Structures are given as structure tokens and as C-alpha cells.
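Hi everyone,

Forwarding the result from last night's run.
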Amino acid sequence: MSLPERKAVPEAHQWDLTSLYASASEWTEEFAHFENAAHEVSAFRSTLKESAQKTGEAFRCCLELSRVAERLYTYAHLLSDSDTSDPEHQACLEKATNVYTRFATLSSFLVPELLSLDEETLARYLRAPELSALRRMLADIMRYKPHTLSAEEERLIASATEIFGASGRIFSQLSNADLAFPEIEVDGEKKSLSHASFVLFLKNHDRSVRERAFNEYYRVYDQHRNTIAAALAGSVKKDVFLAQTRRYDSALTQALFADNIAPAVYDNLLAAVSRNLEPLHRYYELRRKRLGLNKLRIYDTYVPLVPEVSIRHTYEEAVLLAAEALQPLGPEYVDVLVQGLTHQRWVDRYENKGKRSGAYSSGCFDSYPYILLNYKEDDIGSVFTLLHEAGHSMHSWYSQRSQKFQDYRYSIFVAEVASTFNEQLLMRRLKEKYAGDRKMLAFLVNEQLDDIKATFYRQVMFAEFEKIIHDLAENNKPLTVAVFREVYRELLYKYFGPAVELGEWDDLECLRIPHFYSAFYVYKYATGLAAAISLAAQVMSGDTEPRRRYLDFLKAGASKYPAELLADAGVRITEPAPIEAAVTLFGSLVDELEELTV
């Protein structure tokens, strides 16, 4: 069955972008106005030294313009992602990206000019009542003083923002618009192979289907391996260049600085997981036994171990299940979410030709917290993805209503807590629903294991790969397709263990992960899940205080640094306890699955 064209998708299944602009012409009108208004910030050049009041006026002007730029860009990227092959959508995104870059260039003087002031003046400004609403933001900017360049150097870097993003855009266009995958025959019917359907094929109980889908998928990547490797190398070198230019110790240090996280936290995560791979290896060995194979292949690591069980949810049924699962968070949370997922059309539900793969939550201060899905009714993973992205969207909804513009956009570090928290509640509800059914419980425990494997262990493996390839670049080592594959293959051996036999193309996976173009991002999935496991257990205890703390955490936005926000919510993520708890939970689930599948 072929995918529909975008124009054939029913309106009810598309997101409603009118919360941003009533029409494309309205966007065009605001875009034209913004192009002229963007220059207003230039009037404040060389004025910050005059007074705290002038500094406040300058930053407020910048924030007001940033809010418009964010709105323009959000509309353009959502439109583009709904059909990446539409040239008008691409042109809209190109215009939004370009004007965003030009505005960043125009306003790039603000931070270096502020940081050029002497320490006494900066301290006085922070105490000034006219800057009280900007105090957190300005204090955070001042942390960057050792890594901020001259005004002219900052202008040059800001003007190159679009160039720095070229590697990611090249990969995105190639992966989402240009790669052509063949159809796979399943039970006499030809089905489309795509990014969204790939894992669904890997869950097929017919091993020959899994093998064909895996080989055909990576055959396409193999044909483009050198191009993608060049794009990835360019992205890594960009990270290193910016870190060295801004006088950070490493690209990793630069990436963690915004969250005020020490590199030791990242390194300790990798080390802690490396010491605790035995439960993961034991899980793969259990898989090998239950599937009756001499050796597992990578394409055998996704198929459910309970073939007799099949769960199917329409999108509407998934929304009802979400409402049941999230009851511990209270009526406001549930009511707002259900309205958003249905009548307000936050969600672009199903796959269509040219639509961006995967899933995400995205929006701006003035819009709905939109969700992109490629929902599959016969994949329980789609239900979990819906609740995952709903966690992000509700985080945004609460933050938009509780914080000022400059403090609402929370860090990715804490974002992954809100999303995986929802998955914990969904799993609990499903286990309650099927408490008397051993086969269904086995299926659900299998799903829970695979979720932790994907969100915790797999992301740590990705994080280790990122650390290694950036270290190579920082030591002037070549980054070729052969180097990427060699590094990745060694990590596959390490994380999959002796039960899994690697094939010819398994290491090509390193060329298809879009997150690698946002350096040192993926580790936050692992820390987020560890924190979510702890917080969900507290909220599900029935005590109202943990729920209050958690909802306050969602409302807090970026009003504090991530580790502080999580500590207020009830978990200390910089300490080993949450990581060890996640590992312990995984090991206990392996034991449970082994008993349920005897």
C-alpha cells in the first residue's frame, strides 16, 4: 500500500496551524514587517553602558523581536516537515531561516557589549529594579563571559549560523526527501518500506521479512555512505571549531555549559552503564533462547517475544488510553491534553509522502505545542510515542502559562523527563488492565524492556559514539566512513554482547541517526528516563505532594538550571542513584520476563 500525497490527508488528521497564522498570506505579511522591524535592535548599539534602564530597553526589544522570529520559523518548519518535497514549503523555511540568521547577526552585539562592562557595573545592573524580570536571563549570560568574543567576532559567527547548519540540512534532505526505499512483500502483499515502517518490519514474526527489510533499508544507506559520512564529519568539525573558537576545553564542555552540567556527569554516565551491561547482555541471551536461534542478528532484537499477542489501537483509542493512564496527574492535565490531541488538532497524525520521519513536539510561545507523528495502529510503540510527545507538549503548555517568554523554553535535559514520565504511567495502566493475562503481561514486560533498552542503553551507546568521534576530531584524526563504521562496530560488540552476531551492514546505523547533528543531545534521553522512573514512582504512590512537585516542575520552564529543577521535583540526577535504579529495574524486568515466558 503506497503512502498518500499530502493533499489527500483529511484535515482532521493534520495539525491546525491557525494558532500561528490564519493563512499563508498572513505569515507573508508578518514576515515582511519583521524584515523591517528587525533593524530596530541596532539602535541600541553602544548604549548599554549608559544605564540599567537602557540595557533593559535593549533586551526587551530583542526579546519582542525574537518572539516574532520564533513564530515565523515555527510555522515554516512545521509546514516544511509535513511535506519535505514541496518546493513552496522549502522556500518558506529557507526564508524563515535566512531572516532568523540576519536578526541574530543584527542583535549579536548585545551579549558582548553587556559583557564588556566592568564587574561592578554588571553587579549593579543585576540589582536594578528595572531589570528584575530579566535578572535570571542576564545572570545566565554573564556566565558566558570567558567564552564570549568581541562584538565583531560575534557578528561574524552569528552571520555564519546558516552555514554551520548546512551538514544537518543536507542529511535531513537526503534522508527525508531523496532516499528511495523499495517495497517489501509480506504475506503476498507489497508494503512500503520507509523510516516510519522500518521498525514495524523488524517486529514482524517472520524472520525472512525482518532480514529482507533490514538488508533493503541499509542497502540504500550503503549507496550513500560517503555522502552521509561527509555530512556527519562536517557537523563534528563545526562543533570542534566553535568550541575552540570560544575557548572551551572541548566540544563536550561547550555542549553541557548551557545546562550548567559538568563533563564529569556525562563521563560518569558512560562509565556507570559500561559497568552494568550484564543485565542487557542477559536480555539478549534470553531473546536468543526464546526465539530458538543459535545467534541473534540485530534485526532479531526488536520482534516481540510473545507472538500470540497482538494489540491494535486506533488513534482515538490511544487518546482514551492516555487519559486513563495520566489520571495520577490530575484533571486539568488530562482535560487539556485530550482537547489538544483531538478538537484543537495539535497533532499531525499519520505518514504521507514527503513527511518528515519520526516524531517530535514543537511550537513557540504563541502557538499550540504541536506534535508530529507517523502513527501506526498495529504498533503499540505508536501509543507510547504519542504519550511521549504529549509529555513534551504538556510541559510546554504549563511553561507557556507560568513563565515569561525569556524563561519559558526549558532545556532538553529536563524535557526528556516529562516525556518518559508519561511512558512510565502508560505502562503501569496497561499492566493493571491485563493483570490476569500472563501472555499479555509477558508482552508488556517485553515492551518495557525494549523501551528502557532504546531510551537508556541505546542512547548511552550513541552518546559514547559521539564522545569518541569528537575526541578524534579534537586530536586531528580523520573522520571517514571507514572510521565511523569501525568505531560504531566496536560499540555494537560492546553493547550487544556475545548473544548477537554482527552482519555486514550493521555499523551503517551510525549514518542514519539524525540526533548526531545536534551534538551531545542523546545522553539526555538516558538521564531523563532515569529521573522519570524515580519521579513516576513517587507520583504513583498516591501522595499528593509528589504530584504537586512534579506539576511545579512542568511550570518552572527555564527558571532554574536543570539539576536544580529536578532536585526540587524530588530526584538528584548528578548522583549515581537514579542511574543505578534504572539498571536495577531493567534487571528485575529481565527476571520477570524469563519467568513469564517459561
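Residues 131 and 513 are 42 Å apart (CA to CA).

Cheers,
N.
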